Amino acid sequence: MKGLLKLWCSVFLLSIVLLLGACGTDEESASKSDGEISIITTIAQIGEPLSVIGGEYVDVNSLMGPSVDPHLYNATHGDISKIEEADMAFYNGLNLEANMVEIFDEMSQSKPVLAIGETVSEDSLLEDETGAVDPHIWFDLDLWKHALESAVDELKEFAPEHADYFEENKVEYFEQMDELKEEAKKLEEIPVEQRYLVTAHDAFGYFGEMHDLEVIGLQGLSTDGEIGVSDIQETIDIIIDYKVPAVFVESSISEDSIKAVIEGADSEGVTVELGGELFSDAMGEDGTKEGTYLGMYRHNVDTIYNALMKGAE
C-alpha cells in the first residue's frame, strides 16, 4: 500500500510539474531548443552510450547511478524536476523500471519518450519459467545495438539538423561494440565443465546465451523477492555436482546471498572462490572504465574469464 501511495504521489507531482512547464512562453521554448538537447534516461547503460553518440549536441542525465537497483527504484522529487526539464526520455522497459512506467506514460503525453528495450523483436527476448520477460538485454551486444539505434533514430527525428552527426558517431560506436564482441570470444577458451556463471540474481541470461555459459542466479529476474534457504542449497548442490570454481557478487545487490553459498559449500567440504564483482543492473562510478557501457562489459568478461579459467589450471 505504501508503495502504491508513493507511486501515485510521484505521478500526481509529475502531472502538476508538466502542466506548469506547458505554461512557459514560446520565447522560453525557442531559447531551450537553441541549446543542447536535454535527455533523461533511467539506467546508465542507455545514458552513457547516448552521451557518446550525441556528443556536443546532447546533455544526458541518468537517474540511476552506480549501485542503484532499477527493479526497486522509486522516483524522487528531484527526479520529477529533471524529467520536467528534459526534452526527451529513454528507459529500458520490459518491466525493468516497474515503479516508473506510469511516470513515463504521463510524460509521453507532451514529450518524446521511448522504452528502447521494447523495440527489439519479441522472439529475441528470453523468458523465465513463469513466462516473465528478461529485461537485461544490454548483455547481448547485438540486441543492445538495435535498442540504441532506436534511440538514435528518435534523436534524429527530434533534431534532424544534426542527423548526419549522430549517424557518424553511432557507426563509430557500433564498431567499438563489434570489437568488444570479438574480444569476448576468449570466453570460449573456458572448458565446458567450467562454464557455470553463478551470480546473485538472474541478470546474465543474455550474456550466457551470447557466450555459451550456463547461468545460475540465486534470485529471479527481479530483485523484489526473497532468497530462500532452498535457493541457496540448490545452488550449493550445483556447485558441488559440477565442481564450479568461483561465484560472483553484483555491484547493485547485497553480497549476503553469495557469501551464504560460499559458506554453505565450505561446510560440506567444498571450496568455492569469490570470483569478483560483476556489474549487472548498474554500471561503475563516473570517470572510471567501468562507468562506461563498453568498459563495464569488458570488466565483466575479464572477471569471469580470469575466475573460471583458474578452475581449468
UniProtKB/TrEMBL annotation:
Residues 1-22 form the signal peptide. InterPro entries: AdhesinB, Bact_metal-bind_prot9, Lipoprotein_PsaA-like, ZnuA-like. GO terms for cellular component: cell envelope. GO terms for molecular function: metal ion binding. It is found in: Cell envelope. One of its GO terms (biological process) is cell adhesion. PROSITE patterns: PROKAR_LIPOPROTEIN (PS51257). Pfam families: ZnuA. Keywords: Coiled coil, Metal-binding, Signal, Transport. Residues 163-190 form a coiled coil. The keyword Protein transport does not apply. Belongs to the bacterial solute-binding protein 9 family. This is Manganese/zinc/iron transport system substrate-binding protein. It comes from Ornithinibacillus halophilus.
